[in-house]
Amino acid sequence: MILTFQEVPEAVPEAFRKPLELLTGEVRDLYSVRLLLWDIWINPPGEQNPNIRLILDTAPDFFVRMRSILYEHLIGGIARLTDPPATGKNQNLTFDSLFPSQKPPAIASLQKEAEPIRVIRHKIVAHLDHAAGLNPGMLPNDLTFGKIRVCIDLMDEIIGLAWVQWTNGGTLPKPDSDSMEIMNCLQKAVAYDTLEREGLVMPDFWNAPEDMRREYLAKRQQ
């Protein structure tokens, strides 16, 4: 898993600069991925969601795999950021490190809300538990996305408090997802398929040899 850093203002004390950069970057990454899942697959649900129709008409197998990858990314990220301060001889970077004195209540709330997410991470994401692998129904996977959303919102709250404390009241804009850009590309693909069926563009353009594509595009520009 690649680490994500977010630049912080020079006002942040040196002892807290790197932890704040890393934890901010990681939380913003999770926030953005959560939005992506929500925007594309979940809101609105089921057949009411026009994005599902686009996915089924273009690359359904790819997006099924991608959804699983994104879910695992969120589960692994939440569990990693809620690990205890130490695991064996290894120290872990935690939100506690951003608050040397009084810890905000959101940290304790996050630990509680993350418990079922951590069970899923331990059983089938980081490891393949024999019993859970053969019987996934034993896992606390009811309303998993709801728990993910609550955990990431709490993380965002914690990072916001840390920024207020260490950046002289500074704040960060909320990250965005790339869902609109992705869905626009799928809409273009569907539109191209329509033009192809109507004989208005070169058939099977994307699978044609490079020289044939260049020749076709050159003729179109004349």
Topology, element by element:
Layout: H1 14-42, H2 50-58, H3 60-81, E1 86-87, E2 90-91, H4 105-113, H5 115-125, H6 130-134, H7 144-166, H8 179-197, H9 210-221
Antiparallel strand pairs: 1-2
Helix pairs in contact: 1-3, 1-7, 2-8, 3-5, 3-7, 4-7
A few lines on this structure:
The chain has helices at 14-42, 50-58, 60-81, 105-113, 115-125, 130-134, 144-166, 179-197, 210-221; strands at 86-87, 90-91.
Descriptive key words:
222 residues; mainly alpha; two-stranded antiparallel ribbon; 9 helices; 2 strands; globular
Overview of this protein structure:
There is one protein chain. The protein has 222 residues and is mainly alpha-helical. The chain has one domain (14-177). It contains nine helices and two strands; from the N terminus they run H-H-H-E-E-H-H-H-H-H-H. It has helices at 14-42, 50-58, 60-81, 105-113, 115-125, 130-134, 144-166, 179-197, 210-221; strands at 86-87, 90-91. Strand 1 and strand 2 form a beta hairpin. Helix 3 packs across helix 5 (115-125) and helix 3 packs across helix 7.
